[in-house]
Each structure stands twice: as C-alpha cells, then as structure tokens.
Design a protein that fits this description.
single chain, alpha+beta, Beta-Lactamase, seven-stranded antiparallel sheet, two-stranded antiparallel sheet, 53% helix
C-alpha cells in the first residue's frame, strides 16, 4: 500500500500530467506524451500505445529506455494494425476493458484466453517480464485504445511487478489520456474538414477559368518549398529565419486563399481573350455590312443621272467596288485590333480615323462607324482589358481580404487575411491594393508574390499571352528583383535552388 504522503504526491503528479495532456492537440505528439508520462509515473522501462479504430488496434507508439541506450540508433518504428482479438494481451484489454497486471509475461497460465507474443523481444534481444495493460476509456466508457507499460523497475534497476496500489491511478491517467485523444482527434477531424473546404472551394474558383485551374494549389506548393528552404539555410540572409509549424500553416492557408476574392470577378473578365466580345464584334460586322449596302447602293442610285451605259456601268462597278473594298478593309483592321494584345501609336491613329467616319442609315440619321464604347475597348494599348476592367480584376485582393477576415481563425493564424491580400504588393510601392513598401510587406507576402508571379508566367496560356518557359520566367523574376519590385533574396533562393520543381 502507498503511504498517504506518497499517494498525495502521485495524485499531484497525475494532475500535472492531466494539464500537460490537455494542452497538447497534435495527436502523435500527444500519444508520445501519454506513454512517456505513464512510464515516468510508474517507473516503467518501456511502453506502447494502441489506438482502436474501426475494429482494429493500431500500434502507434513504442518507447524503450534499455534499447534506446543499447542501440544507436534505436529500432525504427511505424504504426501498424493488429487484429482485435482476445488472443493477444492488448486485444483482450481492448475488447473487455479489463486491466491486466502481469508479473511475468513468459509464465502465463495456459487457461488464459490471451498469450504473450515474443516476436518483439526476439527481434531486439529484449526480455519483457512485468506488464501493466490498461484500457483507455472516455467519459462515455468507450474504449479508445490500450496503454501498455513494460518492466517496472525498482531503485536498483531490477525488474519487478507493477504495484497493485497504482492501478487505479494509472486507470485515471488512461481515462484522462482517452479524453485528450478524443479531443485531439476531434480537432484533427475539424482541421481536416477545414483544410478540405479551403482547398476544394479555392480549386473550384480557380476552375472557373481554364487559364487559372490549379493556380492556388501550385502557389501553395511553391510557397511551402520556399519556406522549407529558408528553414534549412545556415548562412546568408535567411540564416536566422525560421518558420514555426504554426507560421508555416499560416503561410500555406494564405497561399490557398490568396485568390478566393476572384469569386467576385465576372467570368467574362477572367476569360477575356479579345478586346470585344463575340457578340460585340458580330454587331460591328452586321453594321459594316449595312454600311457597305447603303454606301454602294447610294452610288448606284446616283449613277442613274448618266445617259450612257458605260458611265453607269463604271459607277456601279468600279466605284462601287472601291467603296466596298475600303469599308471591308476598315472592318478587317478593326478585327485585327480586336485580336491584338499590343496597339502601336500608328494603329491607334488608324483606328481613330475609322471611328471618325460616319454613314447615313435608312432614316437618314448620321451615325459613326464605331461607337464611343467600342472605341474605348479597342483602344487598349497593351493586353485586352480597359482600365475600368483592370480595376475590377485588381479588386479581387480586396474581395479576398473581406472574405478571409470573416473566417474565425485561431490566434496563431490571425495574419492569414493580411498575407493573402498582400500578394500583389511590391517593394517599390507600385503594387496594390495598398501600395505598401519595403518593410511594410512581411516575408510571407513576399514569398506569395514570387510564387504567384512565377505561376502566372509559366502556367497554361493566359488570354493575354502565351505561357513562358521556366528560363524566361526566372529571368523576369530577377529583373523584377533588380528593379526593386520583388525581394531579391527570395527570388535568388527560388531560382537558384530550383524550388519550382515540385
């Protein structure tokens, strides 16, 4: 029997362990903690833990001080499933919920339904004697797993049986462990669900356009590769820069969510390949056909004033054909401008000359060849978006911030909205939406900027340009860095270590 003072100390220790268990939410770390604290609590040389899942026991953790000191390195371990059966010691406890306190594993009565499997001992030249095997039950008495403690050691280092008087304390510890495991699993399940929702929703938004499909996934992968490479740097500008697990998670969430605001951008802008829509060009084509009919028809009417057949033929033929050809040439030029991603000054002047031409409709109303709105769209010098349309595209980062800031992130993820909405900020202040400069832009946003630009350059053809090879994209990134727009250190790390090979 334990004395009252020893029991008080044990209970106090048990409470301390309970606090430690409740503060750990990572399942694998929690399982290691449970075995370590249970061994320390009972003086066990070794221990293991099994988790019950869908009718099978999964061997998750194995700790052994003797093998740790004797073998360098200790034997490797990978979780593996065991058939849930009363024939094994862990299986018996997992099914019945009974505690087993075994003095000698090699001296079990044959009448018992379970037996000891000595394979582990034989593989590692180890001898298992005493065992304390305890079910881990939650508050609803559901068995979540089995805690197995091996070889209790006395003060001299001799193997002894586990004391009967500590069984109820170990059961209490196992119960606390079960609750902690339940909570950790719940947190892991919620996190997995949250991760899936983020990935599937952002992937669905990317997939609205074939030109951006997979973009967020690749940006997240590039960002992770850069952050991990930074963690491994032992010299240079990133020598003392490290990403804690929570910071890495924060960066990856921001990468996945950086373009979620595009849900607020009209699809026709995301997929815009020409300056005018097909419907708008069809309207212009119909108008130019009408202009030809009216213009050529007018010339033919005027020709009736002649008295000779050859004059009439000339007006109806050569003059009409010339007028029709000029109108057709004007239309073909408008078609070319509509499909071009670059408009020279000469072409712009020619476009305006065409736009200044007029015709009379059947009601004798004077109308321009091109409307003001059509001229505005066709006059875009570079790309195919007007300044108004481009602002709508740029607004996706503000949409991103407004969406992401309403996600109830934990304290460790509180910067996700800011990082996600800053991926278009440039060090020289020419970025958007806030025009942040230099130190105002955190490293995470600088990483996202490099990842985003690289993928935009190298991914599938965009409406406004063809995909660029990796060598060309790398050169552009370095040019941006030299111009003070991107972080030189991040760009050099990404390019020189070929982190795009994911």
């Amino acid at each position: 029997m334990l004395s009252e003072s020893i029991l008080t100390k044990q209970v106090k220790k048990l409470n301390q362990i309970g606090i430690a268990l409740s503060s750990e939410t990572k399942l694998e770390k929690l399982l290691e903690l449970i075995v370590r604290e249970a061994r320390r609590f009972t003086g066990a040389d070794a221990g293991s833990i099994y988790i019950l899942d869908q009718g099978r026991l999964y061997f998750h953790v194995a700790q052994n001080d003797t093998l740790k000191h004797r073998l360098d390195p200790p034997p490797g371990f990978k979780p593996y499933p065991l058939t849930l059966s009363k024939e094994s010691i862990a299986g018996y406890v997992g099914i019945t919920g009974n505690i087993l306190n075994i003095e000698d594993a090699y001296d079990l009565p044959k009448s018992l339904p379970y037996n000891f499997n000595s394979d582990y001992d034989l593989r590692n030249n180890y001898t298992t004697r005493s065992l304390l095997v305890v079910p881990m039950k939650d508050r609803q008495e559901e068995i979540l797993g089995v805690l197995q403690l091996i070889n209790a050691m006395d003060k001299t280092g001799a193997i002894v049986q586990f004391q009967k008087s500590v069984e109820h304390l170990v059961m209490s510890l196992a119960s606390q462990a079960a609750v902690a495991i339940r909570n950790a699993k719940l947190i892991a399940d919620i996190k997995a669900l949250f991760d899936s929702l983020i990935r599937y929703s952002t992937s669905a938004i990317d997939a609205r356009s074939p030109h951006t499909a997979g973009h967020s996934r690749r940006v997240a992968a590039y960002s992770r590769a850069m952050a991990q490479a930074i963690d491994h740097e032992t010299t240079g500008p990133f020598e003392n820069v490290f990403f804690a697990p929570e910071q890495m998670e924060e960066l990856i969430y921001a990468a996945w969510l950086h373009d979620i605001g595009k849900i607020g951008v009209p699809e026709h802008l995301l997929d815009k390949e020409k300056k005018l829509s097909e419907e708008a060009m069809a309207t212009i084509a119909t108008r130019f056909e009408l202009i030809k009919t009216l213009s050529v028809g007018g010339n033919r009417d005027n020709s009736r004033a002649g008295t000779k057949d050859e004059v009439r033929t000339d007006c109806m033929g050569e003059q009409g054909d010339a007028v029709e050809q000029h109108i057709e040439e004007d239309f073909r030029f408008v078609e070319k401008v509509n499909e071009s991603s670059f408009l020279s000054g000469e072409d712009l002047a020619a476009l305006k000359a065409i736009a200044s031409k007029t015709y009379e409709d059947s009601a004798e109303n004077v109308k321009p060849y091109l409307s003001e709105e059509e001229v505005e769209f066709l006059s875009v010098r570079k790309g195919n978006l007007t300044s108004k349309e481009y602002r709508k595209i740029q607004a996706h980062v503000e949409h991103t911030y407004n969406i992401v800031r309403n996600i109830p992130f934990t304290k460790t993820l509180e910067n996700v909205p800011f990082f996600a909405a800053s991926h278009h900020e440039l060090l020289d202040g020419t970025g958007y939406p806030k025009g942040l400069k230099s130190d105002e832009i955190p490293l995470q946003a600088r990483i996202l900027a490099v990842a985003d630009i690289f993928d935009a350059l190298t991914a599938a053809d965009r409406p406004y340009r063809r995909a660029i090879p990796i060598s060309g994209a790398s050169r552009i990134l370095k040019e941006y860095a030299e111009a003070g727009r991107l972080d030189t250190d991040v760009v050099n790390l990404f390019v020189e270590k070929e982190l795009y090979k994911i």
